[in-house]
């Protein structure tokens, strides 16, 4: 667990980060979202002490981060940034191996880890191991950047707008990959973005920052359904709120007994998918299946009711 | 073989022949020698002069590289930041002194021979290397540097593993310029009795023997061309794989 306790960073007159407190559960993705200049990067960089807080502190698994030398702390915390920051003079393998090398892992363990990570990110080790960063596409560079941050199995992974430089389609794919890899490895991730879509898509919990303050912190459903103030509501975007909400709720939650005609949706799909299926085929209900077997249906009326329920 | 390689080998062959078998070139230099003068400089072996010349240049350039790079590293650290303008001024002054003046000033202190020449070459070599090293070390890609810090490389590791390798091609280009200056300037060392390839040139000027001047000049020129070329090759090799490669067909 990461405990951020009343952390503040003051530059001259302004508080870039103003008394922010957060509890971050192990094995979850926490996304901090806010407009440019809201203090996200500063908050993130105080966790690995690239920025020293003016006041307040951070504990990782109960241990204060100022108990050890910053560079030793950073070797335990993965760090991935926009534009990847790969070392242009080193091969992909050497880039990924950077932290394990600092930690004096034996060579065969490092090599195995590099291959494992490349495979995990869908890059054939034999093909990519000895390439240089400039010989990769933008999406591949970004994946190597994240692989490098994960290489030593850090307690915590910090990501600062890691997908900011990618075009929308590759970004969506990179987000899915990250989600999947995080599930597989059980990593704890704190990710910073200015993109509310990304926050809702990735976050187990979402923190919204405005002017250095954490104005709301909770599960994405809560951010969408009950924005704490006008700023958050604005970030969520009024027109898109119903769809955002539906994309967060699994069909399973509204499945009722009964039959329906036509193609089925899996119970793990989102209500947004179910709504889309209803509208596209002109049905009032769609059958729901689990592992290929029908378990009931979800109706247009139930979806409408669920959307109308928000406070 | 590529044409460039053939040209390189031809120039190298010519250089070796000029230094090792100078008398084979009588036909070439004879037209430039005075009536009863010799066409080939043989008061001292050209080989030993060439070796001496190169050693002087190498020692001076090596010292200049070490000092200039160390200085550039120092003034790009937080602790040395304040010295940056001063260090630029000093290296600029070093450059703006005419080499003859440096020699003239150094002789009373260091005597005749190689030592004042070394000092002059060293002072001359500092600026190009320092300027390049300073530029390279202060324009490193910021994201790469942030990533290096963020993953836990300490200062020393960042310098050795990231900053210097990234700056190396640009630093090397500075060393190349500095070596070129030194190769030429070393000839002037002969005026203070340093044993360099300036000897035939000075002798030729004193005795109105253009053949000697051409001989010395040609050898120095060939060294310059070949060494320049070698530096460029190394710089390109360092940079090669960092440039985007042409994409392989999928
Ligand atoms: N090193 C610094 N010196 C002075 N001001 C800074 C520094 N770093 C950030 N700031 C200021 O702090 C505020 C928050 O910056 P930042 O954390 O980078 O925001 P974000 O990442 O949300 O865009 C901004 O107003 C920025 O100008
Ligand atoms: Mg930022």
TrEMBL record, chain A:
- Superkingdom is Bacteria
The answer to whether keyword Iron-sulfur applies is no
Look up keyword Plastid and say if it applies.
no
- Record field: transmembrane: none
An example Gene Ontology molecular-function term: ATP hydrolysis activity
- Keywords noted in UniProt: ATP-binding, Nucleotide-binding, Transport
Any one biological process term the GO annotation gives: quaternary ammonium group transport
Which residue ranges does the record assign to the ABC transporter domain? 2-236
> Hey, which family's this protein in?
Belongs to the ABC transporter superfamily.
Full protein name = ABC transporter ATP-binding protein
According to its UniProt entry, this protein's organism is Pontibaca salina
């Amino acid at each position: 667990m990461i405990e951020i306790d009343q952390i503040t960073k003051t530059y001259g007159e302004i508080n870039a980060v103003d008394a922010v407190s957060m509890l971050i559960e192990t094995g979850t993705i926490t996304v901090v979202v806010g407009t440019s200049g809201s203090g996200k990067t500063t908050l993130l960089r105080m966790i690995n002490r690239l920025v020293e807080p003016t006041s307040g502190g951070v504990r990782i698994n109960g241990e204060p981060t100022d108990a050890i030398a910053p560079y030793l702390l950073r070797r335990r915390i993965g760090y991935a940034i926009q534009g990847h920051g790969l070392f242009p003079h080193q091969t992909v393998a050497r880039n990924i191996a950077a932290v394990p090398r600092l930690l004096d892992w034996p060579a065969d363990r490092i090599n195995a880890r590099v291959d494992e990570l490349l495979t995990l990110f869908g890059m054939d080790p034999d093909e990519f191991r000895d390439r240089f960063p400039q010989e990769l596409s933008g999406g591949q560079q970004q994946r190597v950047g994240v692989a490098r941050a994960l290489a030593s199995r850090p307690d915590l992974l910090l990501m600062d707008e890691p997908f900011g430089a990618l075009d929308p389609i590759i970004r969506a794919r990179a987000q899915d990959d990250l989600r999947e890899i995080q599930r597989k490895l059980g990593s704890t991730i704190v990710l910073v973005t200015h993109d509310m879509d990304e926050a809702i898509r990735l976050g187990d919990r979402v923190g919204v920052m405005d002017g250095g303050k954490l104005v709301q912190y909770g599960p994405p459903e809560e951010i969408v359904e009950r924005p704490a103030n006008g700023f958050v509501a604005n970030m969520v975007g009024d027109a898109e709120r119903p769809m955002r909400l539906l994309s967060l709720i699994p069909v399973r939650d509204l499945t009722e007994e009964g039959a329906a005609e036509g193609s089925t949706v899996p119970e793990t799909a989102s209500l947004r998918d179910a709504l889309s299926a209803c509208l596209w085929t002109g049905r009032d209900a769609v059958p729901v299946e689990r592992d290929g077997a029908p378990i009931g249906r979800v109706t247009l009326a139930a979806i409408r009711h669920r959307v109308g329920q928000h406070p | 073989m590529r044409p460039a390689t053939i040209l390189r080998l031809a120039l190298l062959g010519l250089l070796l022949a000029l230094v090792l078998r100078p008398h084979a070139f009588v036909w070439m230099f004879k037209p430039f020698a005075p009536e009863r003068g010799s066409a080939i400089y043989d008061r001292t072996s050209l080989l030993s002069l060439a070796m001496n010349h190169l050693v002087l240049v190498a020692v001076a350039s090596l010292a200049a590289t070490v000092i200039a790079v160390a200085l550039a590293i120092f003034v790009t650290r937080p602790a040395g930041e304040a010295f940056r303008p001063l260090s630029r001024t000093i290296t600029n002054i070093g450059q703006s002194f005419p080499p003859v003046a440096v020699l003239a000033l150094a002789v009373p202190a260091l005597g005749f021979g190689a030592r004042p020449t070394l000092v002059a070459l060293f002072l001359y070599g500092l600026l190009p290397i320092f300027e390049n090293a300073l530029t390279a070390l202060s324009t490193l890609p910021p994201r790469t540097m942030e990533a290096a810090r963020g993953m836990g490389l300490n200062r020393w590791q960042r310098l050795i593993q990231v900053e210097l390798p990234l700056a190396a091609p640009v630093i090397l280009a500075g060393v190349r310029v500095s070596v070129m200056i030194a190769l030429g300037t070393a000839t002037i060392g002969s005026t203070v009795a340093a044993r360099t390839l300036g000897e035939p040139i000075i002798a030729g000027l004193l005795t109105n023997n253009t053949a000697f001047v051409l001989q010395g000049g040609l050898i120095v020129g060939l060294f310059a061309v070949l060494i320049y070329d070698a530096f460029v090759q190394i710089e390109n090799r360092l940079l090669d794989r960092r440039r985007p490669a042409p994409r392989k067909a999928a």
